[in-house]
Structure to design on (342 residues):
């Protein structure tokens, strides 16, 4: 009843995007073969579920990691270290790491609890053009006074997977036409107890980091270059079952779900609607950027509970998402480069 893996199709996708970058881009999306990937259906991309899992484990070990906390600062230093930044540098502004730049965007967010220092981690791999695809997730966790909330899935899985996505992406790619920006958002979680308890019109109490990034790009007149956004949020559950978020851009959801079927991940990317009702993709959608949220909310029983712990996370689930994201990129590029899909 589930779709069978189509390893050859996956190989084609990957070959198109990463193995034959220097060939004529006019052939993109159709030509090319990758015998390596075609012969290894179990290793659809270099994304390692085990590496991603180890990152989640390390992040969880820092304890609860709400915005502005010293635990989140420690988690941030860990992420920067993994990305290849220098954790001893007080400010990594535009510090180049090879071709890749890693930096911290720091600001004081106005929250219902007063000003909170927030920091997005921005990792950019420049392409031949300024056309940009964003791959994102949050790394803060929800603050609770009543219990220790370590957010293995909620905050941990997205951050751990993003670290590994950067490594796998670098391992795969040659020179790409698109610029890729990986952003670890701070302040996705509300400061107040409920998601919108303290939200006011035009001033939501959540999604601080993503709104900051949209504002920053607008100010730099660079938002127009952002052609698509992929958001990871709560995607590491052992019983991973991602539904189609009804707020996300339909063609982008279709691309990811089609790729998932071809890679044999139909069990993880299921055919049902997921009603999230706002996440870090929302500010981008409002700004006109095609966006997709990969999130398991309604069928994750441990959401915002003390039981959102490491034992709920599986390397295989993390790999399913990592593989699908990486293998989808050629199709996303193909779709947006001609302005189609808007
Ligand atoms: Zn949450």
């Amino acid at each position: 009843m589930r779709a069978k893996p189509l390893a050859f199709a996956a190989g084609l996708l990957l070959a198109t995007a990463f193995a034959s970058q220097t060939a004529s881009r006019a052939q993109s999306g159709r030509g090319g073969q990758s015998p390596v990937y075609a012969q290894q259906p179990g290793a659809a991309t270099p994304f390692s579920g085990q590496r991603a899992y180890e990152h989640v484990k390390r992040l969880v070990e820092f304890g609860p990691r709400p915005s502005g906390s010293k635990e989140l600062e420690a988690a941030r230093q860990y992420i920067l270290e993994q990305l290849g930044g220098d954790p001893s540098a007080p400010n990594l502004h535009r510090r180049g790491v090879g071709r890749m730049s890693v930096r911290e965007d720091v600001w004081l967010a106005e929250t219902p609890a007063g000003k909170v220092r927030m920091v997005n981690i921005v990792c950019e791999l420049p392409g031949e053009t300024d056309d940009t695809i964003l791959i994102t997730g949050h790394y803060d966790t929800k603050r609770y006074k009543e219990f220790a909330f370590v957010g293995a899935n909620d905050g941990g899985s997205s951050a751990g997977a993003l670290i590994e996505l950067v490594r796998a992406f670098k391992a795969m790619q040659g020179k790409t036409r698109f610029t890729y920006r990986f952003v670890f958002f701070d302040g996705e979680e509300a400061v107040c107890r409920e998601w919108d308890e303290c939200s006011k019109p035009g001033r939501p109490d959540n999604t601080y980091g993503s709104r900051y990034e949209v504002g920053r790009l607008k100010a730099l007149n660079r938002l127009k270059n952002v052609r698509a956004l992929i958001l990871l949020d709560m995607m590491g559950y052992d019983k991973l079952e991602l539904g189609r978020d009804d707020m996300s851009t339909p063609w982008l959801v279709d691309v990811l779900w089609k790729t998932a079927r071809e890679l044999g991940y139909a069990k993880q990317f299921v055919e049902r609607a997921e009603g999230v009702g706002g996440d870090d993709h929302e500010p981008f959608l409002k700004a006109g950027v095609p966006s997709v949220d990969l999130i398991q909310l309604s069928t994750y029983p441990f959401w915002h509970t003390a039981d959102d712990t490491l034992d709920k996370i599986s390397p295989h689930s993390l790999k399913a998402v990592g593989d699908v994201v990486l293998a989808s990129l050629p199709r996303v590029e193909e779709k947006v480069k001609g302005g189609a899909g808007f």
Observations:
- The pocket of zinc ion is lined by residues 142, 154, 189, 304 (CB under 6 Å).
- Residues 68 and 89 are 19 Å apart (CA to CA).
- The domain at 40-328 is CATH 3.40.630.10 (Aminopeptidase).
- The chain has a mean pLDDT of 84.
